[in-house]
Amino acid sequence: MRRNNWRDFLALKILIVFFFVICVISGLLSLFPGNHAERNAQMVTAERHMSDSKRIHHVFFKKPELTPNANQEPKVAHKLFKGIHTIDFTFGVLPDTQYYSRSHPDIFKRMNHWFVSNRDSLKLNYIFHLGDIVNNYDQPYQWKAADKAMNILDEAKVPYGIITGNHDVGFQKNYRSFDRYFGEERYMWNPWYGGSYDNNKGHFDLINANGQNYIMLGMGWGIGGQEIAWMNHVLNVYRNRIAILFVHDYLGSYGKRTAQGQMLFEKVVLPNRNVRMVMNGHSYGAARRVDTVDDNRDGKPDRKVMQILSDYQSVKGGQGYIRIMGFDLSHDKVYVRTFSPQVNRTHAFKKNKDNFTFSLDLDQAPKKGKKGKVHQ
């Protein structure tokens, strides 16, 4: 009798342990939806040492999830777009925040609180930070101020991308503080976070807005051949997505591309048919230009690329100016609005420089391109 009781007890323990293991495995698998092949694509697929760098460069691909507000039918209803009833969703822009981190942290926080408070009426799907997070890379208090301000978006689960500017790394390109506060670890478990280059020096996010698939590709200060190669690789893998690039230095104050901007245009924008927009900060002012690209070289333009500079840092410390871009899918239009939650103004410079509309091909990116596996 005792032997039978012991056997029953042992069998019960084995059953409990087995059930616990199954639950743990199921929980882990739920973090990576899809079949085995998809999970492999979601995890790290490339990890290598560059010959001239001691840092490890990561690329990992994740199956995107719908971002907040994605695929909702109601149009944007916000006073910044008064009288316009055809906007499907918006993306936000945080230009250089260096002086806020240094001297006006409350303005920095107010800007992000405004984004969160107006998120639903704007149908806000993503925010671009254009670099120069802090003014002095070697001042910890500025990084702490920036950390607190950006944490407002983290806690609200608002998708955003952030890159470095020259003030964030200095002449020595010291990424130590950026790595600590805004490295890959901070973002890697967000469902929209697609992958990282050099601990978030570069990264991409996968955003679905009203059924459209976007890839937001950012690269921080100090762009060379290796960074270009990584950007082109990612854009090719996700060539079926509409691509928006954001870097710190691209257009100058008068709308002419800088030396780095011209390099990026020739080596990244032109070869990748899905690139439709490039954004940057760095140069004081607001400027824009559009280029038509003949991808198949038949003498007829195949796409337009809009390039936009946004930098309000020197308007009395910046005064909290942000930008909101409203996308009208049915008319292939983008409405750009500039606003300051600090002073409640809708322009810092001339109205037509800060608030404008442009036409853009918002159809899903063409599927033509280099051979290789395509990720959605």
UniProtKB/TrEMBL annotation:
Gene3D superfamilies: 3.60.21.10. The keyword GTP-binding does not apply. It holds the Pfam family Metallophos. Keywords: Membrane, Transmembrane, Transmembrane helix. One of its GO terms (molecular function) is hydrolase activity. Residues 90-283 form the Calcineurin-like phosphoesterase domain. The chain crosses the membrane at residues 12-32. Signal peptide: none annotated. It comes from the Bacteria. InterPro entries: Calcineurin-like_PHP, Metallo-depent_PP-like, STPP_CPPED1. This is Calcineurin-like phosphoesterase. It comes from Sporolactobacillus nakayamae.
